[in-house]
Sequence to fold (318 residues):
Amino acid sequence: MFDRILVPLDGSNLAEAVLPHVVTTAQAFDAQIILLRVMERRDNEKDEETLSPLRWQLRKSEAEAYLDAVHERLRGIGLQVEKVILEGDAAERIVTFAHEQEVGLLVLSSHGRSGLSKWNINSVVQKVILRAYVPTLIVRAYRAVPENLEGWRYRKLMVPLDGSQRAEYVLSLATSLAHSQDAQLLLAHVVKKPEIARRAPLTGEEQELLERLVAINRKEGEAYMADLESRLSADVHSHLVVGESIAASLHRLVRQEKVDLVLLSAHGYSGEAQWPYGSVTLNFIAYGATPLLIVQDISREEAEKLKVEEVAQEKKGH
Fold:
């Protein structure tokens, strides 16, 4: 699944929250790990005169020593590891390097050197995930990091599905990871209650119509989940929920089931391909509290082609 895993680190303890997940996925797929440190000028060092070559070299030496320590720690577990130091804008360098090296997975900590904030992910992560078009694992930095990296594993994985082939794009990865971890795989499907835009209360006839639609969709959803369970070889369980909000229902299920990792395709049934992510995936990026692995169902080349076509259509309309 993943031959090479890219792991950007900024030297902070928060950024190291990714390490247990990196070890687990690398062992699961026998993948090589690339540790990347991007050296940026700090806000008070934008002017060339404020940063001497000696100070910059000292910072570079510190970065090298830090990567060496992480490198040796991972090699001591028996993993294949290499390390790279680049200079420039962190987000730009991470995205470019990921594309040039054709990495299979990008692992990002939600927060790093700048510390925790009221935002669920920091600005660097925001920029990277909107441009990378690479399978990406986002680890919440505010979660405790176990001391024993090698003994840590996932116990319960959850895959939200909406019945579309695009949403199922992540299933192959999810089943492989579940097998390697001896983990339970939970398939989740939400039947959304239909809405009728009305200022007045619904009539009895309208309420009955909504209930019939929910019953039809629920029956179809149950058949869909049963079919998936029969086709997948992992320890699979399905959970169907009826709710007014798909995202809220899924978040609630994650908490109730104590899920370790949520796996999502970037788009589902209603997701527009010209955007990097559909609405449910974006909601989990912005509001999720659990590690999130996103698999892109469209390639970077396809996405760029769609953007060019969209711009051409806009120009044609003016």
User: Anything to note?
Assistant: The first helix runs from residue 19 to 29. Strands lie at 4-8, 32-39, 81-87, 105-109, 136-139, 156-160, 184-192, 236-243, 261-265, 292-295. The two ends are 45 Å apart (CA to CA).
